[in-house]
Write a structure and sequence with these properties.
With 252 residues, the protein is α/β, with parallel strands linked by helices. The protein contains 7 helices and 12 strands. The protein has one domain: Ribonuclease Z/Hydroxyacylglutathione hydrolase-like (Metallo-beta-lactamase, Chain A, 4-Layer Sandwich), CATH 3.60.15. Strands 1-2-3-4-5-6-7 form a 7-stranded mixed beta sheet. Strands 8-9-10-11-12 form a 5-stranded mixed beta sheet, with no helix packed on it. It starts with a helix and ends with a helix.
């Protein structure tokens, strides 16, 4: 009986941790207690990946953004429990879009402490969407177990409410959609963006958080630490093009 139980446990864990490029939930070890997880969503007929992160502490696991794919809300909890033997105790949403804040209601219902900035909360309230239990001031430092991190609002960018998270000791910058992948050809979805302010906001982040060893972008590749510089370049090119267009447009 004990041997059978061991075999069943092995199969369950193997199934939980087995990952392929087609897996709907993909988890990669970043460094130390940090893990990047990736989920996928059909956007206008194309499957787009979304990167998020979790941190393992001796007080439990902290999520930074929820899966974009709502079918993975519970599997993420189950996988973390099986892999680390810990429960998720906190969840931060870095802005109001579905790929970040879409799981706030689910995780709050599960007893997870949920957090967002006030700007995010205002947007979610206005749109009639599920909101976080706790509102974070623009620049707040948290200590969870043996880890300390800073939640920072740099100003408008990809979204009017986007925040980033900084881990000073490990030099990890979690940027979510505020930071584009180093492979990105353009700025992507701009419906809620303020690209002119984005440039200023990026420069604030670069000044405040020096020499990051790891930078996690919101979508696609997250391993290239040039992503923040690349985002600044894309923003500057976009603004230059807009400025040039205004100068050359005929007067009416």
């Amino acid at each position: 009986m004990q041997k059978l139980a061991s075999i069943i446990l092995f199969l369950v864990l193997s199934n939980t941790f087995a990952q392929t490029k087609n897996s709907p939930l993909q988890i990669s070890h970043l460094t130390g207690d940090f893990y990047v997880y990736r989920t996928f969503h059909d956007y206008n007929g194309t499957m787009i990946s979304a990167n998020a992160m979790y941190l393992v502490t001796d007080k439990g696991v902290v999520l930074f953004d929820a899966p974009w794919d709502e079918t993975q809300f519970q599997p993420l909890l189950d996988t973390i429990k099986a892999r680390h033997n810990k429960d998720v105790v906190m969840c931060f949403a870095t802005h109001s879009h579905e790929d970040r804040a879409g799981g706030l209601g689910f995780y709050r219902q599960k007893g997870v402490k949920t957090y967002s900035g006030k700007l995010t909360d205002d947007i979610l309230k206005k749109e009639g969407k599920k909101r976080a239990e706790f509102i974070v001031p623009n620049d707040t430092t948290f200590t969870v177990g043996h880890h300390t991190f800073e939640v920072y609002y740099p100003g408008k960018g990809h979204a009017p409410d986007n925040i980033v998270v900084w881990f000073e000791k490990e030099k990890v910058l979690y940027g979510a959609c505020f930071i584009k992948s180093a492979d990105a050809k353009d700025l992507g979805y701009l419906a809620d963006s303020d690209v002119k302010e984005w440039e200023k906001s990026i420069k604030k982040v670069k000044t405040k958080f020096k020499n990051p060893k790891y930078i996690i972008a919101g979508h696609e590749d997250w391993k290239n630490t040039e992503s923040l510089n690349h985002t600044l370049k894309l923003v500057q090119e976009y603004n230059a093009e807009k400025t040039s267009g205004k100068k050359t447009s005929p007067k009416k």
